[in-house]
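Final report, section 2: Outcomes. Of the targets proposed, Polypeptide N-acetylgalactosaminyltransferase is the one most frequently requested by collaborating groups, and we therefore present its record in full.
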Amino acid sequence: MSHVLMNDKNRTRSKRADSENDNAVETSKLKARYRYDRYYGRNEAKDGPGERGSSVILNVEEQRKADALFDKEAFNLIASDKIALDRTLRDNRDPDCKKIPYPEDLPSASVIIIFTNERWSPLLRTVHSVVNRSPPEYLHEVVLFDDFSDHEELGPKLEEYIKDTWPDGVVKLVRAKQRCGLIRARLEGAKAATGDVMVFLDSHCEANEGWLEPLLARIHEKRDAVLCPMIDVIDSHSMSYSGIGASSVGGFWWSLHFSWHGIPSHEAARRKKLTDPIRSPTMAGGLFAVDRKYFFEVGSYDEGMNMWGGENLEISFRVWMCGGSLEFIPCSRVGHIFRASHPYDMGKEDWHGMNSKRLAEVWMDEYKRLFYMHRRDLIDKDVGDISERKKLREKLNCKSFKWYLENIYPEKNVPDERVQAYGMVRNPSSNMCLDTLGKDEKKVIPIGVYSCQGGASASEVFTLSLAGELRREETCADASASNPNVVLRSCHGGKSNQYFKYDKISKTIKHASGLCLDTEGLSNGQGVKIKECSGKDTQKWELEHILEI
Ligand code: UD2
Ligand code: MN
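The predicted structure is given below as tokens.
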């Protein structure tokens, strides 16, 4: 039977009795388990704020304090402080997950949690959740890496708490001598770890029931698989824990920001069961498991990256291109507090941009042009020496970015390949171009017109796809005779409202409804409409690059 029943003392004990006479390795694992026995049963039902992952309800005074702190902390510290450090959670796995028989000889895990000025309660709740919900024979250690925090509560009090709470050696605290930034902090944590597998977590997580075994089992089966648990949501206001299902994979924007997407149809077809790993083009970054030796073999992280950001896409591209795989494990669930800002100081530099330039230069070959289309400001920016990373790519004999796009992320929109046209969509009589006006493209937004910037602005780059979509990276122009204001919304691939045809002779862009894209009466910043085709200059368009197909 599997270890997912780890909170059932009797079962654990009888299994232990069965294996009593096994070899020395087994015996030492069992010793480890004895040490933990008193930590079993911590997930038993109890009452209190936030138990079973529920929301915390604050009184008026507490809520006032919480609101006053929210901007600085970026989460509800008052609510978090009210919740037990070992609160219970609802087990929200698919029922089939509980039936999986995991092998007995799984590798051991070092769980690495880096933090800088994390608050006490979310930090310690992360550690408690890991110790309480990991089978002790597989939990080699928890490495807490303090990236130079200066909050007083994280000083000697933390050492004392660890000493008083867990048996020696279970939770190891390592302190940085200077601020490392998250990338080098993870590397330092990795250097301190000695388990077979490393599992990285952010310092404001809660590991749920049975989270560890499926990760270890998959690495046992495939040592070059890099695995992410499903990242459940701990609400930053209420601290409630909610499952997010298992229906998303990671992608990216050409600006090299991470994005979530539904599981693509080719991947859905490949998988046989709901509990099977889901291959993902990228990872969010914070929560993943990797064979310790493989992590270093495949190039760990780029030490030239600073502070925060970009390392997640770098490791994603690298693992796939250099022969490994990146997978989401539906039966492994860990909650994370998603915060709208960082509650620690990072200085004023655009670290995400600079780190992303390093990864674009090393891994993206000619496709880096699409990154620079969004980040012209970085074209001449010095981001340090990248020759070591290029050598690594050569040494590991990694495949091209084109291979990655074609094989791992075929659904990714490449705005200037296999399309009818791309670039500015210009109305010559007014010299106005279609423009997103810099609005957030994760929402439904109108398409506006604006004085053409000569391609200097990514917000005026559109694609006319082979399927007749007038589109951006993730969204398509959408209109109808009854809703003639043209908006950008997610592409549905079904033509109709999202179908446009360009006529090179008349220069019109005609919508499926028979109406034409028109700038009549519009000035800078106003939304474009489809109207009765009139042959007037306000309906004439030039597409910047028309491809010969
Ligand atoms: C996401 C990732 C995060 C990281 C980041 C991109 C998830 C859930 N989170 O942002 O892990 O990959 O994208 O870089 O996938 N920290 C330090 N030193 C620093 C800065 C941060 O130790 O200089 C710690 C911090 O305390 C936290 C972790 O690094 O434990 C991640 O930072 P975050 O939670 O602010 O990042 P997040 O979740 O917004
Ligand atoms: Mn985080």
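The domain at 419-546 is CATH 2.80.10.50 (Trefoil (Acidic Fibroblast Growth Factor, subunit A)).
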